[in-house]
Amino acid sequence: MTIAYTPWPETFTQAYRKKGYWTDRPLTDLIDNAPQDNIAIVCGERSLTYRDVCSQSKKLAIYWQTLGLKSGDTALVQLPNIAEFYVVFFALIRLGVAPVNALFSHNESELSAYAKQIQPRILIASSRHALFHDALFFKTLCQASDVLQHALIVGKSEWAESLDSVLERSTDMPLHAEPSRADEVAFFQLSGGSTGTPKLIPRTHNDYFFSVRRSAEICHFSPSTVYLCALPCAHNFPMSSPGAFGVFHTGGHVVMAPSPDANTCFELIEHHRVTVAALVPPALALWLQAAPSHQKAITSLTLMQVGGAKLSESLARQVPKLLGCQLQQILGMAEGLVNYTRLDDDIDTIVTTQGRPMCSLDEVKVIDEEGNEVAANVAGELITRGPYTIRGYYKAPEHNAKVFDSEGFYHSGDLVCRNEKGYLTVVGRDKDQINRGGEKIAAEEIENLLLKHELIVHSALVSMPDAMMGEKSCAFIVPKIASHGMKNVTLRKYLRGFGVADYKVPDRFEFIESLPLTPVGKPNKVALREVIRQRLKQDSKR
Ligand code: AMP
Ligand code: DBH
Fold first, then answer.
1. Which terminus has fewer CB within 10 Å in the chain: N or C?
2. Alpha carbon distance, N-terminus to C-terminus of the chain
């Protein structure tokens, strides 16, 4: 059994193979071919060699094989930043089982939506997450997925098998399974989304492996790379740009950080002589504030990667001075395309652009509203296709028809300027999404939930500027009656009642008599963003 996805046309796949970009090898090679005695992962007090990661993931795969898990099945995974995330990932890949790795901040709403889409046979979660303290939510998930039968918990569990006990039981059974074919789906990435339900991104071994190898090359990763995984480990950036997988490919090691908190991370950097870290801009801002009193702790850093949301030039310029290392900007997307500033670029390119595509077969166009390419340095929408950019979301024909054109280009919704050298600078967005310091919120998802409220007629979620986060979210609400009595706290509680991730709950609510409309009758979000901008200005004068 294979998992359905939109394949690349054959003329393209031939070119990708001919160029050596697609090697028809499974992602398990990342750990199986690594120098086995090297440390792969440091997690709290524990250090795992590549041999440990390989043998644990094999043991786990063998155990799952006895449960009947097989190629073409899927798994719902939600783990925090711990070594087990990778052990579980490679165990599933060994069996040809495709995981979707939910973020640890995701809640009932997101997990249920993923389960509904992929119909997982197994759940792998952490005892640290409140949802998995008992079997209740697992039972709810079983209603979303007809085939969900098994659960494995990392940590102590009274209601499910625990990973530790599986690993403690010795087994000398052989593993009969193999990973899915390299041109088939290996796992699902998460899209930030702009629609009511979060979309899933099928990634093949071939395309993902290539993006990891090329990223590691661009970023000069080597066996002496010590990478701090401080962003959520399931996110595409710390997983593959070059992230933990780039480290595995080159035989270095990953140090797991529980969060991007500056003090926690500086201690880890000092203790483990970390050389590379990756952050979103708000976390970088906090590191820069804390750095002057921690200069001695961070001398080992050589590279600070920043991406996920727009980095201001002023923050960018502070990196070399305050962190004593080089900055690299990255414009990436879980759908594929990743742009990097190069390590030998001049400082102005590094602080003012978000880089250029990683390979020569990445096709990038910047287009105007009529779909025509614009001149250099003129803003337009970034569209792209290439050897690691998907041709379609998982089981989403209607949405795919909107964001993939007839030539297979993915319309990113990002507004960019491209300079004469091909470097991109993000200048805005033409998709209904809020980028809250790197965490993406699909406006429609929250608007739909607000509309279920009996006192709300219309709602529109828009971004508002925020000094720290870049953007925060503001929900404009048209109440049914003037004396509605709705308060911010009760609305927040109401939304949390649906079990949505905390970062999606609006930072501000504004009540309004009616929504301004565009000529075609849609909520005019440009006008609403201006309204909130003015109100924020007035607030700051008070
Ligand atoms: P996602 O679809 O969740 O993977 O998010 C990808 C999106 O994040 C991109 O399409 C951009 O909108 C945004 N993004 C990523 N990196 C940057 C960056 N360096 N600067 C500005 N926006 C970024
Ligand atoms: O924001 C992103 O999705 C992102 C940022 C940097 C990404 O997917 C990546 C690098 O690979």
1. C
2. 63
What integer pLDDT is reported at residue 361 of this predicted model?
A: 98
**Is the distance from the beta carbon of residue 440 to the nearest atom of ligand 1 less than 6 Å?**
yes
Residue 483: what pLDDT?
Answer: 87
Give the residue among 332, 310, 171 at the shortest CA–CA distance from 241. 332
Atom in ligand 1 nearest the alpha carbon of residue 440: 3
Cross-strand bridge partners of residue 441: 434
User: Residue 394 burial by CB count (10 A; 0-12/13-18/19+): exposed, middle or buried?
Assistant: buried
Looking only at the bridges linking them, the beta strands covering 150-154 and 161-162 are parallel
Please tell me the pTM assigned to this model. 0.97
Query: Could you tell me where the beta strands, DSSP code E, fall in 114-252?
Result: 122-126, 150-154, 161-162, 185-190, 200-204, 226-229
Torsion-angle region of 83 (φ positive above 0: left; ψ -120 to 50: alpha; else: beta): alpha
Q: How many CB atoms lie within 10 A of CB 181?
A: 16
Q: Which residues contact 396 (CB under 8 A, 6 or more apart)?
A: 199
Phi (first) and psi of residue 407, to 5 degrees? -95, 5
- Which listed ligand is nearest to 279 at the C-alpha? 2
Q: Whose CA is nearest to atom 6 of ligand 2?
A: 332
CB 191 less than 6 A from any atom of ligand 1:
yes
Ligand 2 centroid distance, CA of 333 (Å):
4
Residue located nearest, by CA, to atom 11 of ligand 2: 237
User: Which of 190, 208, 235, when mutated, tests ligand 2's pocket best, judged by the most ligand atoms within 8 Å of its CB?
Assistant: 235
Going by their DSSP bridges, the two strands 303-307 and 326-333 should be labelled as: parallel
CB-ligand 1 contact for 414 (6 Å cutoff): yes
Ligand 2 centre distance from Cα of residue 235 (Å) = 8
Q: Give the Cα separation of 308 and 260 in Å (integer).
A: 14
Same CATH topology for 46-179 and 434-541: the answer is no
Q: Does residue 237 have its Cβ closer than 6 Å to ligand 2?
A: yes
Q: What is the position in ligand 2's atom list of the atom closest to the CA of 192?
A: 3
Instruction: Summarize pLDDT for 319-372 with one digit per residue, the tens.
Output: 999 999 999 999 999 999 999 999 999 999 999 999 999 999 999 999 999 999
Q: Residue 74: what are its φ and ψ, rounded to 5°?
A: -130, 165
Among the bound ligands, name the one nearest to the CA of residue 239.
2
Tens of pLDDT, residue by residue over 406-462, are 999 999 999 999 999 999 999 999 999 999 999 999 999 999 999 999 999 999 999
- Domain range summary for the chain, segments of one domain joined by +: 46-179, 434-541
The ligand minimizing its distance to the Cα of 435 is: 1
CATH number of 434-541: 3.30.300.30
Which protein residue has the closest C-alpha to ligand 1 atom 8? 308
pLDDT at residue 172 is higher than 80 = no
Site of tokens 């004068």? 541
Of the candidates 360, 308, 337, 518, which has an alpha carbon nearest to the alpha carbon of residue 411? 337
pLDDT the model gives residue 541 = 87
Q: What does the block give as tokens for 494?
A: 């109401």
